[in-house]
Amino acid sequence: MSITPLMPVYPRCDVRPVRGEGCYLIGERGERYLDFAAGIAVNALGHGDPRLVKTITEQAATLMHVSNLYGSPLGEELAQMIVNSTFADTVFFTNSGAEAVECAIKTARRYHYAKGAPHRHKIITFANAFHGRTLGTISATNQPKMRDGFEPLLPGFEVIAFNDLAAAEAAIDENTAGFMLETVQGEGGLMPASEEFLTGLRTLCDEHGLLLILDEVQCGVGRTGTLFAYEQYGVTPDIVAVAKGIGAGFPLGACLATENAAQGMVAGTHGSTYGGNPLAMAVGKTVWGIIQDEDFLAHVRQMGERLRSGLEQLIPNHDDLFESVRGRGLMLGLRMKSDSRAFVAHLRDNHGLLTVAAGDNIVRILPPLVIEENHISECLEKLSAAARDYTPPVAS
Ligand SMILES: *Cc1c(COP(=O)(O)O)cnc(C)c1O
After folding, report:
1. Domain ranges of the chain
2. pLDDT, tens digit, for every residue of 269-285?
3. Nearest alpha carbon, ligand 1 atom 15
4. Which ligand 1 atom minimizes the distance to the CA of 218?
5. C-alpha–C-alpha distance, residues 180 and 11, integer Å
6. Ligand 1 atom nearest 243 alpha carbon
7. Which pLDDT score, from 0 to 100, does residue 268 have?
8. Homologous superfamily in CATH for domain 17-49+294-388
């Protein structure tokens, strides 16, 4: 037997965190890391936030789980808070991002079914997208590394080029249910939808009776400096999948929809045993209460601008290594001229800075949303020191 007890599906690095303190992680041997990965855009409040710890301990002692057979006072409160501050009229709570996307797909299919057009099941999705690891969500992408060996996948998706409005229009046929995209692509390489593209998709949806589904699992909940990234486009979606930051480390996701888009989701059509349990709802209320605050979001924008301009200033000094900066708010990507994975490893192993590699040679910088100036300075110093003592791998 050589398989590890922990199923070896992740190529895990040598960092073995055992404790978190604010924006820092502490490893098994006591070593400290500046955590600008934040659990891949999850730990919005950093580690050990006292408000979150208090909520979890108090709610765990009061009521943790009951099932969705019963009424949910806390679920109603959180759903109302979300409805009050977004486009949505209704919310389904999940435990993860992939489940939120699954609910979005089911809601879209059911919408056309309820309207008497069950043949309209096809969802147009986009190259380099990431929507999760369930069979449904891998079916919505075109990346062989996620799909190979899992076929047959779910029919009803067509993947086309991102930010290509003409291709999107050409892909519409009588079976189309809607478009699904990340407002800012995360794993694929920190690529925002262009303004023309997203507003154009909205127009196409209106003209053809289609639904606009946004996957804001990574870019939502304050990450880009507004509560949701779509707000920066002046576009109103029909369905939005949310997770990561909304639980700030507790497993929580949500599928948000307008009343119109959710018209097929009647009693008995969907469910989740854990989804929306009292512990998760208490966490969600605390996190949402903190993040939807305009001063909090202004802080994210301000820190995002500081970090971005600091990153841009690094480029001319290291133009052999770095190419450009992209992204929004505190969802930033530093594009490398060589393999970003190797540089992410160098930052981590030799400079104690945690970042995440993404497609297109991007170093993803996703700090907790509560960072302060001193964390930004520390990050920039580490990046600059790392750039000075780095030798890119020789291209093969
Ligand atoms: C992380 C992510 C998901 C999947 O979330 P899980 O909680 O891992 O299931 C889906 N969509 C996007 C855009 C993501 O970044």
Report:
1. 17-49+294-388, 63-291
2. 999 999 999 999 999 99
3. 218
4. 15
5. 29
6. 7
7. 97
8. Aspartate Aminotransferase, domain 1 (3.90.1150.10)
pLDDT in tens, 199-250: 999 999 999 999 999 999 999 999 999 999 999 999 999 999 999 999 999 9
Catalytic residues: 130, 215, 244
Summarised one tens digit per residue, pLDDT across range 27-67 is 999 999 999 999 999 999 999 999 999 999 999 999 999 99
> For residue 370, which amino acid is it?
V
Q: Which atom of ligand 1 is nearest to the CA of 96?
A: 7
Question: Which secondary structure element, helix H or strand E, spans residue 336, and what is its range?
Answer: strand 331-336
Q: Is the CB of 130 under 6 A from ligand 1?
A: yes
Rounded to 10 degrees, the C-alpha dihedral 275/279/282/284 comes to -40
132 Cβ closer than 6 Å to some ligand 1 atom:
yes
Pick the CATH number of 63-291 from 3.60.20.10, 3.40.640.10, 3.40.50.80, 3.20.20.70: 3.40.640.10
pLDDT tier, 326 (very low <50, low <70, confident <90, very high otherwise):
very high
Cis peptide bond prior to 144, omega within 30° of 0? no
Q: Residue of the nearest CA to atom 5 in ligand 1?
A: 97
Substitution site in 244, 252, 255 for ligand 1 pocket (most atoms within 8 Å of beta carbon):
244
Distance 40 CA to ligand 1 centre (A): 9
90, pLDDT greater than 80: yes
Mean pLDDT, to the nearest integer, of 166-172?
A: 98
How far are the Cα atoms of 277, 285, 386 from residue 273, in angstroms, in the given order? 8, 20, 46
Question: How far is CA 116 from each of CA 110, 124, 134, 361, rounded to the nearest angstrom?
Answer: 10, 20, 28, 45
Q: Distance (Å, rounded) from C-alpha 367 to C-alpha 311?
A: 14
Rounded distance from Cα 318 to ligand 1 centre (Å): 32
Ligand 1 pocket, 220 CB below 6 A?
no
Q: Is the CB of 217 under 6 A from ligand 1?
A: yes
